[in-house]
Design a protein that fits this description.
With 326 residues, the protein is α+β, with helices and mostly antiparallel strands. The chain has helices at 3-10, 55-72, 93-109, 160-168, 174-185, 189-195, 210-216, 238-243, 249-258, 270-276, 291-300, and strands spanning 20-22, 31-36, 39-48, 76-86, 113-121, 126-135, 151-154, 200-205, 223-227, 262-264, 285-289, 310-317, 323-325. It is 34% helix and 25% strand. The protein has a seven-stranded mixed β-sheet with strand order 8-11-7-12-9-13-10, sandwiched between helices. A six-stranded mixed β-sheet has the order 1-2-3-6-4-5, covered by helices on one side. It is globular, with a radius of gyration of 19 Å.
């Protein structure tokens, strides 16, 4: 569901509760519930349909995607529950076992515990997790706390939505499929853990709403984002595929949603705009941090981010547009 449709659906639900520090009335990555002055629960839920044929790797990717919202808040994963819609007519029980094994490996990788879950028969396969993490209430990293003078760091490349669409259409060679799968299956766990050492004011993960869609949710009344188009890391095969029209439906919705929120200072062709709005699966973190810390942070991420982590923009005083692409 698109961002605008989702907000319209939820606008009439009042979730006020004195223990709720962050609810769904904002656009943060997860909900936060205060247990005590020193402890809060961070909770999220996500699931996806298959993006790759290998069931084990699909399970890894789906789990990494679900866990990411907890990492975006700066929290630690504690427990997870499986959520499964199983296409019994087209998939074997062995395939389901491999999906769950892949997910379990990712939960274990970040120190979490799998407690169980729920499975139903479904005409379309889907898998994901309900995740609970913990954090000190004073350490929560929200998505809208960026300050003027911060720089914007992106930890994974764009183009994953275009490439997964290409995989479904049998347009990618095996090496490109492996690279795409490795990036999607990599957790944001260590990038999140490392960023807590630095002066970070805002963080979100880039998933279904694309870079510009999620960036628009990070804007507050004092700031705008200036995105340096030439600095945004993009997977090599993504731009030529987008030029050929290999663009997911979700990406097209994101482009429409961002029309009145983004100003392009360069005459970008439509396929380049599509990449900036590309609906990602298990994308990277977008972090607003002190500019003096950013280079050191990126240096620490060199191997973890497959060499893609980069400074892609800056936080500027409120301008004529929420986001400027220069």
């Amino acid at each position: 569901m698109g961002s605008a449709d989702l907000k319209q659906t939820l606008c009439k639900i009042n979730s006020s509760n004195e223990q709720v520090l962050i609810g769904f009335d904002t656009s943060d990555d997860a909900g936060v519930y205060k247990i005590s002055d020193d402890l809060a629960l961070v909770q999220t839920l996500d699931f996806i349909t298959p993006v790759i044929d290998d069931p084990y790797i699909y399970g890894q990717i789906a789990a990494a995607n679900s866990l990411s919202d907890v990492f975006a808040m700066g929290a630690v994963v504690k427990t997870a529950l499986n959520i499964v819609g199983f296409d019994k007519k087209n998939l074997s029980s062995e395939a389901l076992g491999e999906i769950l094994r892949g997910g379990f490996e990712k939960i274990k990788e970040c120190g979490g515990a799998l407690l169980g879950g729920h499975t139903i028969e479904s005409p379309e396969m889907y898998y994901g997790l309900s995740v609970t993490g913990t954090i000190h209430p004073k350490d929560i990293i929200r998505n809208n706390g960026a300050k003027i003078g911060d720089v914007l760091v992106l930890t994974k490349p764009l183009g994953l939505g275009v490439l997964t669409t290409a995989i479904k259409r049998d347009l990618l060679d095996i090496s490109s499929i492996k690279e795409c799968a490795n990036i999607m299956a990599s957790l944001n766990y260590l990038p999140s853990k490392i960023m807590r050492k630095y002066r970070v004011n805002s963080c979100t993960d880039i998933t279904g709403f694309g870079l510009l869609g999620h960036a628009s949710e990070c804007i507050n009344e004092l700031i705008s984002f200036n995105i340096f188009c030439s600095e945004v890391p993009i997977l090599e095969d993504a731009l030529p595929l987008a030029l050929e029209g290999v663009i997911p439906g979700g990406t097209k919705k994101n482009m429409k949603f961002c029309e009145d929120k983004v100003t392009y200072l360069k005459d970008l062709p439509e396929h380049c705009k599509a990449i900036l709005c590309d609906a990602q699966t298990s994308g990277g973190l977008l972090i607003a941090m002190n500019k003096d810390d950013a280079k050191e942070y990126i240096k620490e991420l060199e191997e973890l981010s497959f060499g893609y982590a980069k400074i892609i923009g800056e936080v500027i005083p409120k301008s004529y547009s929420d986001i400027i692409v220069s």
